Amino acid sequence: MSRSRKLHITDKLMRLLLVSAASTSVLIVCLIFLFLFREAGPFAFKPGLEKLLDSQWIPVSFQEEHFGVGPLLSGSALVTALAMLVTVPISVLAAIYIAEIAHPTEREFLKPFIEILASIPSVVLGFFGLLVVAPLVKTLFGLSTGLTALTGALLLSLMAIPTIISLSEDALVSVPYALKNASLALGASHLQTIFRVTLPAALPGIVAAVMLGIGRVIGETMAVLMVTGNSAILTFSPLASVRTMTATIAAEMGEVPFGSIHYQALFWIGIILLGITFALNIIAQRVLKKYGMMK
Amino acid sequence: MNNTADKFILFSLRLITYAIVLVVGYILLDIIKNGAPALNWQFVSTFPRRSGAEGGIFPAIVGTLYLVVGTIAVSLPLGVGGAIYLAEYADQGRFNTLIRLAIITLAGVPSIVFGLFGLGLFVLFCGFGPSILAGSLTLACMVLPTIIVASEESLRAVPKGFRDASLALGATKWEMIRTNILPYSLSGMITGSILGIGRAAGETAPILLTVAAFYLPRLPKSFFDQVMALPYHLYILATQHPEADRIRHMQYGTALVLLLLVLGLSLGAIFIRTHFRKKFRW
């Protein structure tokens, strides 16, 4: 075989290998959907999907089991909403400071330092929450236990802060200089320019950042499992103990017999979680694309 | 123009930013201060005794390292290969859009859902059982998007002239990639990937369902064995252990070792990256 022919074959072969490597991500996404539905499937026929709409989650009982995801969904929603209430203003204001006000050398220090927060394992943050944040919440509000929705929300906020800061900062930095300079040339002050020109221009990017942050927070497992107290009740009080969807899967999966109805119900919770994060992700990408902020 | 108001707003913004820095610092200090006294050679080199209330965490460290190595072995070739395809071959076609959509989707999947997926596919369907293999494969799926994104970025940083020059001399596409692209982007790809994998080392939810055991009397012998892992060990010690209140030093020690491992991987990667950035400059 001639050398050039050999090269040609290698070239084709490598191309094929690389295409297959790239295709694995598509394959994995398909397999995730397939296998979640495969394990959860039988539940739809017996006892039927309407069981998931029950108002209680009592998966193990001597009388009648209840598999209502409502209380878990409300637990996740409450914790996420509280976390976002704390996170969004703090993160956006910090992003403004880092992107527009901080001195370049200051920025070089601030950015990686806040990024460290993102690499602290969630179980370590949960542990910190258990020993430091929970007692703090307990004394501050005079409660009998510090394991509340609020405690979980504060920890989740710590996890969402680096994500939202870093993405919002990208959005702020990508606002064209011409816009900022035009505003300054018209006599607007630095702060007026930031709040009336740069921030509105970066808003779609910030909205996308917040949505991705919500996705991360809803899917977080260990920290909320460790500090929210885990009672599956329908409540909207920040100082009550709640149980999220993720915590339910993590806490109960270890004890269920494979293939049981309870096992299938836990997979349905997984499907709901996947659906929510998938939708948030797609909408965030749409927003970014629509406003031409896609990288 | 109200100058005092401006100054007040500027001050508030700075205050908020540094409050975050302070909180990060406090968390790190708390773990280091309380974990350091527990750290000694015996702690990191012996097996736990009395279900983790005494003794060390040696098997959990080893288990986590096995999982990290397994995850790298699976995800690095796939991720780097996929990134090379996306950066060098793919055009703006449907297939390309599909792959990018898949990567974005994967990046957003909650870790516990990866756990369910690994349980359904690797543990049960493939019959691997709870094992290093199942855990590593699950974690590899999880870090794949991070590796692809980091690697693609590093590939795109190589100037276009390198490609044109090589192709103009008659190199095939793969020859061009092998000789003119990879040598300059490999370090960036690997460090970017380590950053992603470091995060996987600290993950608990996926390994909870696919590999982790709380106590094993001996080290794993094959890929089909279960292992102990640092994050899971910490979780059990802190929340399930009957003497949880009395073994805080063991918990803090485990947390510190895990933190050092994860941050060490990240810092190492960042250090290598700055080193290579200085080396290749165009």
List the SSEs and their pairings.
The complex is a heterodimer of chains A (295) and B (282).
Chain A: H1 3-40, E1 57-58, E2 66-67, H2 70-101, H3 104-119, H4 122-141, H5 149-173, H6 177-185, H7 190-219, H8 222-227, H9 245-252, H10 261-290
Chain B: H1 3-35, H2 41-45, E1 48-49, E2 54-55, H3 58-89, H4 94-108, H5 111-125, H6 132-156, H7 160-168, H8 173-201, H9 205-210, H10 230-239, H11 248-279
Antiparallel strand pairs in B: 1-2
3D architecture notes:
The complex is a heterodimer of chains A (295) and B (282). Chain A has 295 residues and is mostly helical. Chain A folds into 2 domains: 3-45; 53-290, MetI-like (MetI-like fold), CATH 1.10.3720.10. Chain A is built from 10 helices and 2 strands; from the N terminus they run αββααααααααα. Chain A has helices at residues 3-40, 70-101, 104-119, 122-141, 149-173, 177-185, 190-219, 222-227, 245-252, 261-290; strands at residues 57-58, 66-67. Chain A has a two-stranded antiparallel ribbon. In chain A, helix 3 packs across helix 5, helix 7 runs antiparallel to helix 10 and helix 9 packs antiparallel against helix 10 (261-290). Chain A starts with a helix and ends in a 5-residue tail after the last helix. Chain B has 282 residues and is mostly helical. Chain B has one domain: Orthogonal Bundle (MetI-like fold). Helices cover 75% and strands 1% of the residues of chain B. Chain B has 11 helices and 2 strands; from the N terminus they run H-H-E-E-H-H-H-H-H-H-H-H-H. In chain B, strands 1-2 form a two-stranded antiparallel sheet. In chain B, strand 1 and strand 2 form a beta hairpin. In chain B, helix 1 (3-35) crosses helix 11 (248-279) and helix 3 packs antiparallel against helix 8 (173-201). Chain B is globular, with a radius of gyration of 23 Å. The N and C termini of chain B lie far apart (46 Å). The mean pLDDT of chain B is 84. Classes of the chains: A mainly alpha (295), B mainly alpha (282). The interface between A and B is large, with 83 and 86 residues.
